[in-house]
Every structure is written in C-alpha cells, then in structure tokens.
Design a protein that fits this description.
mainly alpha; Serine Threonine Protein Phosphatase 5, Tetratricopeptide repeat
C-alpha cells in the first residue's frame, strides 16, 4: 500500500510539473533540486542556504584560516633558519611553500633568490658539469631577486644580491650598476656595496668612475684590510689608465 501511495505521488508530481504554470513549475523544480542536493550533502547554492551555512560553519572557516596563516608563518621562519644554516636546498623549498601563503613577500623571494644562486654552484657536481642546470638556477635567482625588488624597491639585501649575481656570476656588469646605485642611494656608507659598485664600473669600462668609487671606500671604511684592498685596486686602475 505504501509503495502504491508513493507511485501515486510520483505520478502526481510529474503531472503537476507538466500542467502547472511557469512560476509554480519553477518552484517545484527548485524544491526537488534542494531536497536532492541535501540528501547528497551537496553544497548550498541559494542565498538563504548560503547564509545558513555561513551561520553554522563560519567559526570553523575562521579557525581554518587562522591555522593556515600560522602554517605560512612557520614556513617563512623555517626558510630563514635553513638559509642561516647554509642549507640552501631546504631553504629554497621552504621559501616556495611560504610563497604559496604569502605570494607578495619580498623577504621570501630574497631567500629563494639567494638559495638559487648558491644551488647554481652545486650544479658543477652534476654529470657533464651541469651547465644547463647551473644556468637554470641562475635564471631562477635573477627572477627571484627582481620580483623581491618589485615588491619592495628598498629591499637592500635583494638589491645587493642581484648586483653580485650580475657582476660575479652572469658577467653583466652594466646591469649590476642600477641595483647597487639604488642601494647606495639609501645607504651611501655601505662599504661592501661600494666594492661591488667599483667592480661593476670597472667591468663596464668606466675606469675613472671605478677609481673614484675606491676613493669613497678609502674615505669611509675603518677596516685596515679593506682600506688596503681598495688602495691596491685603485692603483691598478690608475696604472692601467695612465701607465706606471
């Protein structure tokens, strides 16, 4: 008898859907659609259902978001710790995971860039000398530094790292001048940056400017070893310019 009643109900619904006006038909379709999705634990779609879901599960969403934020912070801290310990492969991996949470972190891009620069040196141990892998890591380092600077143009570590990369790894001295000048604009007494600047100027064929940069080092540093290095480099440049 029960199955007979259900059959009658089903027939009635079909007839009702086919004979009702447009508004009634849409109402019945929506009603059966909601019931079907509810029985299958499908996500809500109407405004009322969504509001009800937010009221019921909003707290859980907030907790999940807070937990994921903490995970992102931990990856960021772990990347820095690995970098401090010289574990560049692990530092690079941790930086990439951190960037999934903080894609606009200038600091994480710096960690990724410096780690990639060091990993390019390890490529020499690969079969055949690892020339392709080295080049790939250097491209990664360059792109990471540049993205870090795009996010924070005053990130001194990324400016310095990019200049070092151009000068010592990519042999592109002219490209190094821009970032190192940007660094010196905010930190004119940075002796290490001045050494990179002098080297980049020399490599670009600007010998007198390079000698002048070494003069800036001599006037700035109080470290005897650095004074001697700057004096020796300046003398070699002047000898090259004007002869002994």
């Amino acid at each position: 008898m029960k199955r007979f009643s259900l059959a009658i109900l089903a027939v009635f619904c079909v007839v009702a859907l086919s004979s009702c006006g447009g508004d009634d038909k849409n109402f019945l379709e929506r009603m059966f659609d909601i019931e079907a999705r509810s029985s299958k634990n499908a996500p809500p779609s109407t405004v009322e259902e969504l509001k009800d879901g937010i009221a019921r599960y909003g707290g859980e969403v907030d907790k999940t978001a807070q937990a994921m934020e903490k995970v992102g912070v931990y990856w960021r801290l772990l990347a820095v710790r690995y970098l401090d310990k010289g574990l560049y492969g692990d530092a690079h991996d941790a930086a990439l995971k951190g960037l999934r949470h903080y894609p606009d972190s200038s600091g994480l891009f710096y960690v990724a860039g410096l780690s990639a620069a060091f990993l390019s040196k390890a490529a020499a141990a690969e079969k055949g000398g690892g020339a392709e892998e080295r080049a790939a890591w250097l491209r990664t380092a360059e792109a990471s530094y540049r993205r870090s600077i795009e996010i924070d143009p005053r990130n001194s570590r990324s400016l310095y790292g990019l200049a070092v990369l151009y000068t010592f790894e990519l042999d592109n001295h002219e490209a190094a001048i821009g970032p190192i000048e940007a660094l010196l604009a905010t930190d004119p007494r940075n002796v290490d940056a001045l050494f990179i600047y002098a080297r980049a100027l020399y490599g670009s064929g600007r010998l007198q400017d390079s000698a002048d940069a070494y003069d800036r080092i001599l006037a700035t540093t109080k470290v005897d070893e650095k004074k001697q290095q700057a004096a020796d480099n300046k003398k070699r440049i002047l000898d090259e310019l004007y002869g002994k």
